[in-house]
Recover the amino acids of this structure.
């Protein structure tokens, strides 16, 4: 059985103990920022460990991962080490005490060496005055410290492990025998496409299953491994839209658009986020780009332009955009939103009969849409068909929609028929829905 979790909630030592006690066989994968680590188990004992793009022996790799206090882990049973890897058999318990000691010592080291991209140079005058015996590791490093190698290069040239190298440099810094002279740009680790694909496929499956927090977790992992991945940014934007986090959604779609500027879906969604933020001009510009670039009409872009036109009261522009979107859908049934905007446009023109006909057509296709039913009730009331209006709003109230206006309309309809007690209950539901909405903000 797979095990997944967050290192903020379960530390790596805790996970290792759990796998050891269960005599598990499989592979534990860890992702922290841009780092990817792997620890393989055979019968509860560690047989292999590695960190991507870092030259460490198995024990040093485990000790390095002990310092990871955030990120994600995933254990897949039955997954074996890479073919041809050198294997060992180490009791995880034997590593825990040494790991705890190293973590404590490393907390001091990293205050002086916060990055492996730091470049050091020798202070030769200080070395000439030295009367302190240096360690073997420090003697190994001195000829390699030339003012151009960073810590990563020193580790490769000296064949020292991270901890041994860090400890040696810490001593040299404490004695003022070396000084930092700059930093190198960090190299971005190359992540296997299979790793990205695994997270992407899981994320898409979670999104389709409406497990949005799990979906976001998988795509956040991709952004940690590959910050410029456009599909990850796109799905994180979709999840933000679901959560009503409009600013986060707009930011995610902007990142996606930077890598895939030709993708209409990205621009349509960023326009929707801008519209919900009240940034109507930005929304219009994004949709205009879709219309200008597309080789064929994009119905959702025209529908978005219709919404914006209604916002500013331009009924002619709204009517044109609605017609273009309906034509672009061809023989397909347009979404509920099209019937909503078409009904609103007809009502704003004072054509209640046409609005009622449009909305009735929408309800026939989307019988559980509370918004369409509510709008149909408004149109029927404007036509003087009060009993029909009451029936429509009652149907809307039976859905799981908590829109306050819906219950106020229901109260008005019941009140007209002299059903005062029921009307009062509807008004109370409207007040409760309003209070709930304020609390959620």
């Amino acid at each position: 059985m797979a095990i997944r979790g967050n290192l903020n909630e379960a530390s790596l030592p805790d996970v290792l103990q759990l796998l050891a006690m269960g005599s598990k066989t499989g592979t534990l994968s860890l992702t922290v920022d841009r780092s990817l680590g792997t620890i393989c188990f055979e019968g509860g004992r560690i047989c292999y460990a590695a960190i991507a793009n870092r030259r460490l022996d198995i024990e040093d790799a485990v000790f390095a991962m002990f310092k990871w206090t955030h990120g994600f882990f995933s254990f897949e049973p039955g997954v074996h080490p890479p073919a041809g890897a050198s294997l060992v058999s180490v009791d995880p318990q034997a590593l825990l005490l040494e790991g705890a000691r190293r973590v404590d010592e490393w907390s001091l080291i990293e205050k002086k060496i916060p990055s492996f991209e730091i470049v050091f140079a020798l202070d030769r005058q200080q070395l000439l005055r030295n009367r302190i015996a240096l360690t073997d590791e420090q003697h190994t490093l001195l000829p390699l410290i030339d003012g151009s190698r960073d810590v990563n290069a020193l580790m490769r040239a000296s064949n020292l492990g991270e901890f041994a190298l860090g400890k040696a440099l810490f001593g040299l810094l404490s004695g003022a025998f070396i000084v930092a002279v700059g930093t190198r740009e960090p190299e971005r680790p190359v992540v296997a496409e299979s790793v990205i694909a695994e997270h992407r496929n899981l994320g898409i499956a979670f999104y389709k299953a409406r497990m949005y927090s799990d979906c976001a977790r998988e795509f956040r992992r991709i952004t940690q491994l590959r910050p410029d991945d456009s599909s990850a940014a796109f799905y994180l934007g979709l999840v933000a839209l679901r959560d009503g986090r409009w600013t986060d959604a707009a930011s995610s779609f902007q990142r996606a658009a930077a890598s895939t500027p030709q993708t209409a879906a990205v621009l349509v969604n960023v326009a929707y986020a801008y519209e919900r933020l009240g940034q109507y001009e930005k929304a219009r510009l994004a949709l205009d780009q879709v219309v200008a670039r597309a080789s064929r009409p994009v119905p959702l872009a025209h529908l978005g332009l219709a919404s914006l036109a209604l916002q500013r009261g331009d009924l002619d522009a709204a009517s044109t955009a609605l017609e273009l979107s309906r034509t672009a859908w061809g023989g397909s049934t347009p979404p509920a939103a099209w019937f909503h905007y078409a009904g609103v446009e007809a009502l704003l023109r004072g054509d209640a009969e046409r609005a009622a006909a449009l909305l009735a057509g929408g309800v026939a296709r989307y019988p559980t849409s509370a918004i369409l039913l509510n709008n149909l009730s408004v149109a029927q009331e404007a036509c003087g068909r009060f009993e029909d209006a009451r029936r429509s709003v009652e149907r809307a109230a039976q859905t799981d929609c908590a829109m306050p206006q819906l219950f106020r309309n229901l109260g008005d309809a019941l009140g007209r028929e002299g059903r005062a007690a029921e009307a009062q209950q509807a008004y109370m539901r409207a007040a409760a829905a309003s209070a709930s909405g304020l609390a959620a903000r």
